[in-house]
Specification:
The protein is α/β, with parallel strands linked by helices. The chain contains 10 helices and 16 strands.
Length: 405
Amino acid sequence: MYNPSVAGGNANTEFGSRMYVIEATGFGQGSNSGVFTSAVRRSGTTFSRVPYSRMNQEVQRISRLGGKIVSISPFNAESAAASSSTQSGSTSTMTQSTPAAKKKKPGADVPVNLYRPKAPFVGKCISNDALVAEGGIGMVQHIKMDLRGGDPMLQYVEGQSIGIIADGENEKGKPHKIRLYSIASTGHGDDLDDNTVSLCVRQLTYEDPETKQEVKGVCSTFLCNLKPGDDVKITGPVGKEMLLPDDEDANIVMLGTGTGIAPFRAYLWRMFKEGERKLNPEYQFKGLAWLFFGIPKTENILYKEELEQIEAQYPDNFRWTNAISREQTNAEGGRMYIQHRVAEHAAELWKLIQEEKTHVYICGLRGMEGGIDEAIAAEAEKDGVVWSDYQRTLKKAHRWHVETY
């Protein structure tokens, strides 16, 4: 999804108590030693700093490179100093002591702006697949890109966005401006090897108000026309608004239109895909994931087969409610939009929202926000609750997440 609302954050900071340092030796002997798979150096004693969630993948990479793990320690100031002195020739060992844990804001451990517009990472398109079935409206593509070769490695988490710089120059002879798109894959990527990132992109088309001719969006057209092997300039990642909670028992309500499904696909893969569940033993989703999806026609249901598979495998944990505007009618006889579906389920949603473990995510067209608020406000009023006030408490608790355009 193209996301102009996400702004770049501060430069990447230390990842804190969830980061670990892996000390390893003997690189360059594995069967894949000629293939770049990690930022870890290939000779001597090296130190790889990774978040806990990527520990298994880093261990596997080190093994493929022929490395031998010497120790794994929590990252802190002492371990950082130890690794620095060891790389300088000292035989100091890393301590495993850690300072007292401090309460951090959500997203404190998330990588931000590893690559910036003036020095983007250049990835390659791996595949570019149509998501709209025959008879649907518009052009929407699922684009998978290769991230191998970066130093640092371009890592990201579910709910973040990346920037894309289209090839060519604008009318002033300068590079095209960066455009931000919500990531549609988990942090492990579609291939579950940490080497890819995927986007869900709709080709933007509109009528020029003066010439009345059709105009195509520069960046969306560039992305939708990519061929395997084409270079792609990537920046980021950015964004902390749409991050998933760590709680396995959380309820996740997702309200999206069109390509706004991009981050929700990443969430659902992390929650339910068998390969992801194996890679994330510390996160085995047990709550309720409820997707409200607004599209114009049945043929425009993006990732339809994936959603149907999850629905069949996890009927107790996944609900899926569509609002198909050109095929369904609302209670007043007009077109069915996502806010009408919310109104139909307002009593159940209001009850769910009042649970402390419930998080609500809205992604897509900004126009849907008012109708959603109106539907829930009417239900909250029955309990004597002013929705606008209650919503502020949800935002303060980081339980109400919005990314619209």
